[in-house]
Amino acid sequence: MIFTLPVSGVLDIAHTLSVLKVHSLANQEILDFREATIKRVLRLGRECYATKLWFSATEITLETQAPQRLQTELVKIINSWLGLEQAQQQDYAKLETLDALKPAAQRFPHLRLIGYPDLFEALMTTVLGQQISTSAARTLATRYVQEIGQLHECGLHVFPDALSTSEHTAEELQQIIRCPLSRAQTVQRVAHWYVHTGQYLAANQENFLDDLQTLKGVGPWTRDYVALRGLRQNSIFLRTDLVVKRSLTALGVKHNDTLQIPDGAGSLATVLLWALDAKKN
């Protein structure tokens, strides 16, 4: 099946690919900057299908093994993952009223939040990446996907589901991921929670997040990061994120300064500050 999806506004292809690269796992997907494509295996229900996306400024072309009857579900996944329907003009206008963020908003006029194609993937990736660098997080995630993720016929691994993860003990996960036992225990605890509780709470986002944060090993940053990149909550501004704080400092905003982010523009403000830091480095 081949079809195209329109993009609301303009898609910044370079930014989209660069964000995908930060979290990309070589055993899970293939990114091609020259061709502006990504190939990975997406889970639709109980089945998994190799899918390739071609990016342009105004639309995305998809080629997938998924049958026609699953097109609607696939479109929903892609739109949520890449924010294709995200209209940002009003949020940009709000942020341009702030002296501190106006330069970033004008420098990067077409950014959008890039999330994950699956809520459990967002959850696990966030837990694995707590309080470590993105490079270290990719290393842990690569081991996790390699060992537990299903190997698809296309040669790529599928991101593990909650059930297959929860069936491993914390000690087994520690050996697989090669991480501290406390992190492996959090991974196992969160996966078990998702299987038995979390997936049924997902329709009510606040209940989902509140219950998630009751788990040992899950703190406010994890809650907010999942809310931002897993649930696409526009109001979330990651003020405590290290990269966000670094960018704010570079813009002359001190830690104790009050920065009133307009309602609904928190996610865009976070994305802009991440992009600003990435360009600086």
From TrEMBL:
EC code: 3.2.2.21
UniProt keyword list: DNA damage, DNA repair
Substrates-to-products reaction catalysed: Hydrolysis of alkylated DNA, releasing 3-methyladenine, 3-methylguanine, 7-methylguanine and 7-methyladenine
Record's keyword annotation contains DNA repair: yes
Classification of source organism: Bacteria, Bacillati, Actinomycetota, Actinomycetes, Micrococcales
Keyword Acetylation: no
Enzyme class per UniProt: hydrolase
Name of this protein: DNA-3-methyladenine glycosylase II
Classification via PANTHER family: DNA-3-METHYLADENINE GLYCOSYLASE, DNA-3-METHYLADENINE GLYCOSYLASE 2
